[in-house]
Design goal:
Chain A has about 140 residues and is an alpha/beta fold. Chain A has 4 helices and 10 strands, in the order βββαβββαβαβαββ. In chain B, the strands form 4 sheets. A 5-stranded parallel sheet of chain B has the order 12-11-10-13-14, with helices on both faces. The chains are: A alpha/beta (about 140), B alpha/beta (about 400). At the A-B interface, helix 2 and helix 3 of A face helix 1, helix 2 and helix 5 of B.
């Protein structure tokens, strides 16, 4: 059990689920399939992993301005992550989740944590994010 | 409208901007279809009578509205219908349907110091670097939200200090003869993007007068192989009259000497295919300019493209019409060239299912097409592309490549 970590909330929400750590940043446009929730980018270390229902930890997002739409589309199809924990704040991921919240009532919190806290979370099997950004 | 304001404020909070400032122009990318969410967002805006607060132009669509037969892949009717519907929704919302990734080739362009809202990566780099207008790269939805509110967070490239160069790329080793070639600008852009990530590079040692097609080539290439949103060219771009000015009198974090070996490696990376018989030639990434039409027309006038080779030139309707008026279009279509508007050839679904080997004069196309279309790509100059199209196989002009090993 991890003692509660206070994160910075980018998009508010609450979520719980099995943790999935992505060791590199991901381009959600082109590198991720919103229809299946699977990482398509063959160069990515977690290629083939499915983000559906997971609390996804990742350093950040790469590249394309198409990222918000792909995240929103995956949340519409319920193939997307349950919640997202970032090392560095990312506007595109925050925008996609905020738009999906308005359009579809999607509840996918996006938070950032300090590098120390991020490392502390890497071995967690199951994570919970609350509305106020507490991670346990 | 509340969603637009919330989205802009969320971005402001993330970028630690302390205020919003007015913008004068937008070029949006959210009209490029990637799923139903794009449509639902635009329809929500339309249903709530949202209107753009600034002149708002559209990037390429996934399909061409003018040429509906371009994408006939039977398995993907839903995508094609969705892409068309999305483009119509942005017309209904009042966007100006220019459907181009090179909006800076059209009249009425922003000027030095204007704050603007741009999403397409090459246009972000071109507006910032070549024109000196100010924009960050605005992703889908945020671009539209800013255009609806007419405001952007005062952060990063909208601020004076955010525009300082922080890494210097010297090109003193590169011979002037190579610098006079268009291919140099694609190659240096590709190298710069790889070396600097998303920092602001200052390229030193460019010739005094560099035309806009070459500056477009750098802008597109740095934003494809890297995440560059602004670059400076000493003596060439408006915020870099001198190296010191581009660096805002600060010390660069790094100085890199670009070598012939770097450019040779870039050429090899961009030519994923071996030279040989050709199936396609793709020109116009970013969209072909009127000066590029003027250069291509005499190369193909009175000749015929080889049987079995598809030659596509992607451009905007505006430049296409200009090319027609100036007499460049007729010799090209007579030679068998097909001009495509509203979209680009490297997007999937495939352009009429082309397979095999393609040649392009654009670093950006060469960077994306192997992954997106699953084809082999050979990178070459405009002249090489035209000559190869006629011969039906890749032809090399040794004069332009001899300085590379």
């Amino acid at each position: 059990m991890i003692p509660g970590i206070q994160s910075r909330v980018l998009t508010r929400g609450s979520a719980a689920g099995p943790a999935l750590v992505l060791s590199e940043s991901l381009s959600f446009w082109g590198g991720f399939d919103p229809v299946t929730g699977i990482i398509l980018d063959q160069q990515h270390p977690q290629a083939g992993a499915c983000l559906q229902g997971r609390i996804v930890l990742l350093p950040g997002a790469r590249g394309s301005g198409g990222t918000p739409a792909c995240i929103a589309e995956s949340l519409r199809r319920a193939t997307g992550p349950a919640g997202i924990i970032l090392k560095t704040a990312d506007i595109n991921i925050a925008t996609g989740t905020l738009v999906a919240k308005t359009l579809y009532g999607a509840n996918c919190p996006v938070v950032t944590v300090t590098p120390t806290d991020y490392d502390a979370l890497l071995n967690a099997n199951h994570l919970t994010i609350t509305e106020d950004g507490t991670i346990t | 409208m509340r969603l637009a304001i919330e989205t802009v404020l969320q971005a402001a909070a993330i970028t630690a901007a302390d205020r919003l400032i007015p913008a004068s122009f937008a070029h949006i990318d959210a009209c490029f279809y990637a799923g139903q969410a794009h449509i639902d967002f635009a329809r929500l805006l339309l249903d709530n009578d949202a209107r753009f607060a600034v002149p708002t132009w559209t990037n390429n669509g996934l399909v061409s509205l003018e040429q509906p037969d371009l994408r006939t892949d039977k398995g993907d009717r839903e995508t094609i219908a969705g892409a068309r519907e999305l483009m119509q929704l942005y017309i209904a919302l009042g966007a100006r349907p220019v459907w181009t990734c090179a909006p800076y080739q059209l009249p009425e362009r922003p000027t030095l110091g204007d704050h603007i809202i741009v999403g397409e990566s090459n246009a972000v780099a071109f507006y910032n670097s070549v024109i000196g207008a100010r924009t960050n790269k605005y992703g889908d939805f945020l671009d539209v939200a800013c255009a609806l509110t007419g405001k952007v967070p005062l952060a990063r490239l909208h601020t004076d200090t955010g525009r300082a160069g922080d890494i210097v790329l010297r090109t003193g080793e590169i011979p002037d003869t190579l610098k006079s070639q268009e291919i140099f600008y694609h190659l240096i852009g590709h190298v710069a993007g790889q070396r600097v990530g998303n920092r602001v590079p200052v390229i030193d040692g460019l010739p005094d007068r560099v035309g806009e097609d070459k500056l477009k080539a750098i802008s597109a290439a740095v934003a494809a192989s890297g995440g560059v949103e602004l670059w400076h060219g000493v003596g060439v771009t408006p915020e870099a009259p001198t190296l010191e000015a581009a660096l805002q009198d600060r010390k660069p974090s790094e100085i890199i000497d670009i070598t012939i070996a770097d450019l040779t490696r870039a050429r090899d990376q961009l030519s994923s295919g071996r030279d040989g018989p050709l199936n396609m030639v793709a020109l116009g990434t970013p969209h072909f300019s009127i000066t590029e039409f003027a250069a291509l027309a005499p190369l193909l006038a009175g000749r015929k493209v080889h049987d079995g080779v598809k030659v596509y030139v992607a451009t905007s309707r505006f430049v296409r019409d200009l090319a027609e008026a100036q007499g460049y279009l007729q010799p090209l279509t007579e030679a068998g060239v097909e001009v495509i508007t509203d979209t680009c050839t490297y997007f999937s679904p495939k352009v009429r299912g082309c397979t095999g080997r393609a040649m392009t004069n654009a670093a950006k196309w060469a960077y994306y097409a192997p992954g997106m279309l699953g084809i082999e790509v050979c990178f070459g100059s405009l002249t090489e592309c035209a000559e190869s199209a006629v011969r039906g196989e890749v032809w090399r002009d040794q004069d332009i490549w001899h300085s590379l090993s």
